[in-house]
Specification:
Blueprint: H1 11-81, H2 87-92, H3 94-105, E1 110-116, E2 122-125, H4 141-144, E3 157-158, E4 162-163, E5 170-179, E6 185-194, H5 196-206, E7 213-218, E8 223-227, H6 243-251, E9 254-260, E10 267-274, E11 280-287, H7 288-298, H8 300-331, H9 336-370, H10 375-387, H11 392-404, E12 416-417, H12 418-432, E13 437-442, E14 448-449, H13 455-471, E15 477-488, E16 501-509, H14 517-521, H15 540-550, E17 554-560, E18 564-572
Parallel strand pairs: 13-15
Antiparallel strand pairs: 1-2, 1-6, 3-5, 4-5, 5-6, 7-8, 7-11, 9-10, 10-11, 12-14, 15-16, 16-18, 17-18
Helix pairs in contact: 1-7, 1-8, 1-9, 8-9, 9-10, 9-11, 13-15
Length: 574
């Protein structure tokens, strides 16, 4: 060709198409990877939030059940105390009045214990002086629910929130009718009242975000306690839109909902649980705005990685285009065909290399986002990316699979796998027990418990023990969970109450103040607590002990003053 001759008309479009392909690769591949990663990160964020919210709802259910059981015990104690007494004798008994005040003092969640006679008037009460004035409460719903001659109900009646006529604060009652000799109600009731503010104080302490909500409610819609508190607690009720939700809760133990909450209409992740043995439920509503903020924080490093990939690929494409133009100008007259082949080869090679670079950058972005606070792990990932670029895609897939796992999932029928269950529960506790408290799990698997062991009750027991350990460490510290299998020979000298067999010793150790031998000997005894007055019911460890014994195991403890306490749950192995 002579100087100034133009490229053949078909040569230029071929090279242009190759460069356009490179530009498309430099933009579309990172965007496609980022879009996929964003969807996967959102799914993982939602699944993790579902697990947290479900566990929090279980904790709320347990807290309410504990408070209700304490009141039922108080009612049973009063019923036993007044057996054979007439209502006149009840009114005239100073020892009974003193007994009610003592019972009230040892139950921190209670607002008083009262005997109401068949006319609807106070006969004896821990909230008044002696003799008790005949305060008329005949119009209260919990009194009207038990007329003379009515049958005895298995569950106590939970009344609406009212203002106490003796102490002037908000309460809601739990009432059981007094039985006649023929087994029917005599028209009077034994009432133990609870304070809504007792529940609200606990609810505020566990909120994940300021916009979250907690609601304790009857299954007819009446609100008993809530955070944020209702404007008029005595008339507060769930909206009519929540009626189908309440019907579903009557038929099952719990629900998990996404979207506008039937309780307040706000977009939430809502977990509901029914309180066993009572027509009462509790709901935890996680604000979806907080969930989106969490997701956006997770996406920070992937977005930066995608931008970096686009910059790298765009720069490389620009250099490739510049090199192609220079080559084309130098060889335009004599090597047009060769130039076309070279450009095609260059485009294919660059596309392949760019694909590898994109996969490597995206995989590194996932790992850097996950381990951003761990410099050692970040350096390790960077080293792997430099030495083994071809392994980046597989590493990314493994990390995404780990992110997608549910954590504390539903337990299939068969032996309970304790190792993974305890590790996942430790992660939950580590993030919920408060500042200064770390939870460490030193359990390796597999470690199978007996199929008869109820996993939900086991987790509740561990949460109870962890809460006690936290309270024993007011200045913070570490809670360590361990578990190991061991065999009990026939008639062992150190465990005569356990039959021979294979067991698992699940231990929870704190770094608290420890307990003296006298307190250690009473561990698990109902109503016994080492906490200051008004800060414990003494029922938490009693319920743990009952669960362990019901599972065919035993409860043991070690403690040294100033060096902490270790609680052992001996459970049958699978």
């Amino acid at each position: 060709m002579t100087p100034g001759t133009k490229l053949p008309s078909r040569a230029r479009p071929a090279g242009a198409r190759a460069l356009r392909l490179l530009w498309a690769i430099s933009v579309l591949l990172p965007l496609a990877g980022l879009g996929t990663m964003a969807a996967q990160a959102w799914q993982a964020t939602v699944e993790a939030a579902e697990e947290r919210v479900s566990r929090t709802a279980e904790m709320l259910r347990e807290q309410a059940l504990r408070a209700f059981e304490a009141q039922e015990i108080a009612i049973a104690a009063v019923e036993s105390r007044v057996v054979g007494m007439s209502w006149e004798e009840i009114r005239a008994s100073r020892p009974l009045h003193d007994f009610l005040q003592t019972l009230d003092a040892v139950t921190p969640s209670a607002g008083g214990v009262t005997l109401v006679d068949p006319s609807g008037r106070f006969a004896a009460s821990s909230t008044t002086g002696f003799p008790t004035p005949p305060i008329d409460v005949a119009g209260r719903d919990y009194v009207a629910a038990h007329p003379p001659g009515s049958g005895m109900r298995e569950a106590p009646t939970i009344g609406k929130v009212v203002t106490s006529r003796t102490v002037g604060v908000l309460i809601f009652p739990m009432a059981r009718p007094r039985r006649r000799d023929d087994g029917l109600a005599d028209g009077g009731v034994v009432v133990a009242t609870l304070w809504p503010h007792y529940f609200q104080a606990f609810y505020r302490s566990i909120l994940e975000a300021p916009g979250d909500t907690v609601t304790l409610f009857r299954l007819d819609g009446a609100v008993l306690a809530a955070v944020p508190a209702p404007a008029d607690p005595e008339t507060a009720a769930l909206p009519a839109e929540a009626a189908p939700l309440l019907r579903q809760l009557r038929r099952g133990p719990g629900l998990l909902l996404h979207g506008p909450s039937p309780i307040d209409g706000q977009p939430r992740l809502l977990a509901l649980r029914r309180i066993p043995g009572h027509d009462v439920g509790v709901a935890y509503g996680l604000s979806l705005s907080a969930l989106r903020l969490d997701w956006q924080r997770q996406m920070l490093f992937p977005v930066l990685g995608a931008l970096a990939a686009m910059l790298v690929l765009g720069t490389a494409t620009w250099w490739a285009e510049r090199a192609a133009r220079l080559r084309a100008a130098a060889e335009a007259r004599s090597r047009t065909a060769e130039r076309q082949a070279t450009m095609g080869l260059l485009a294919g090679g660059l596309a392949h290399d760019f694909g590898n670079i994109t996969q490597s950058v995206m995989a590194a972005a996932v790992l850097l986002a996950k381990y951003a606070d761990n410099p050692a792990r970040v350096r390790q990932v960077a080293g792997h990316l430099g030495r083994h670029a071809e392994r980046a895609t597989a590493l990314s897939r493994r990390m995404l699979d780990t992110t997608r796992r549910n954590g504390l999932g539903s337990q299939a029928e068969g032996p309970v796998e304790l190792a993974s269950a305890l590790r996942e529960l430790a992660q939950l506790l580590d993030s919920t027990l408060g500042a200064g408290i770390r939870v460490r799990c030193e359990v390796t698997g597999p470690l199978l418990a007996a199929p008869s062991l109820d996993r939900a009750e086991l987790e509740t027991a561990v949460i109870n023990l962890a809460a006690n350990a936290r309270d024993a460490m007011p200045r913070g510290g570490t809670i360590t969970i361990t578990a190991a299998q061991f065999a009990v020979p026939p008639r062992p000298a150190d465990a005569p109450d356990l039959p021979a067999g294979v067991y698992i010793r699940l231990s929870l150790r704190d770094e608290g103040e420890g307990m003296p031998p006298a307190a250690l000997a009473r561990l698990g005894e109902p109503f016994f607590t080492t906490k200051p007055e008004g800060q414990g019911t003494g029922l938490g460890l009693a319920m743990v002990a009952a669960f362990v014994r019901g599972s065919g195991g035993a409860l043991a403890a070690e403690s040294v003053l100033g060096r902490g306490t270790i609680i052992h749950l001996i459970l049958p192995a699978g």
